[in-house]
Write the structure tokens for this entry.
Amino acid sequence: MTSLSSRSPQALVVAGAAAGSLATIFGMLLYRKFSNKKKPYREERQVLNALLQHGVNGNDVIPLMDRETAYTEAIHLGSSKGVILDQVVKENQPKVVVELGAYFGYSAVRMAKLLKDPEARIISIEPDSIRVAIASKVASIARVADKISFAFGTAEDVIPTLRDKFRIDHVGLIFIDHAKTRYVSDLLLFKTHGLLRPGTVVVADNIKNPGAPEYEAYMKASTEFSTEFHQVLYRDEDEKNDDVVAVSIYKGE
Ligand SMILES: C[S@@+](CC[C@H](N)C(=O)[O-])C[C@H]1O[C@@H](n2cnc3c(N)ncnc32)[C@H](O)[C@@H]1O
């Protein structure tokens, strides 16, 4: 048997490199096993895969997305909170809806299905280009692509362009469902740019879960908005978690 000291320097270098590579591979395997790292766009892909696999379209899209996302970590509105948004859309029939946060297009499609006026439209703002692409495909599968424009960018960047780029005079319904710490500042941008009218409705998700305390306090103190806070299940299938959806009406200054 050759001892380590009797090996040539080249052999030692090769042996060292091999041991190093093995250690790296082993480390990667351990990291994968224990880091519980989520695949990027897991839920978004799952939804799109299911729609394509089952070949559903039109009105079957929302029920399939509801089934497919049950017990997942998807962060879309969901059906239990969706009924509150449905009611607002049905009652107000806004001509222009602006949504902050498209994700895979669930709430945009849900609202589009309830708009009766063929001229009514939704602008859904989303800064993640992969999500814009997935949401656009979902809207076309649901046959509401003609009603929804997915605007790529942050709410902060897109809201100031709504008047000129999207030819919007004012907004009938704003659905706020994006970065929780930006709810108040982005809502105020609509006001700065003259896009609110008395009667404009603002619906905001996730007031309790994960929570938007700054927005909740702002609406509670506001004399310009009158707000109802609706307590609902976070998901139909999860009776332990609830959330609050805020529905506010702009009364004017
Ligand atoms: C909770 S999801 C939206 C769910 C969607 N409204 C639904 O119910 O189907 C939040 C989305 O907001 C997007 N987002 C994050 N920061 C944003 C910002 N500053 N402006 C607009 N969208 C943002 C995220 O990329 C994500 O897709």
Summary: The chain has one domain: 42-250. Residues 75-77, 99-103, 106-107, 125-128, 131, 154-155, 177-179, 182 surround S-adenosylmethionine (CB under 6 Å).
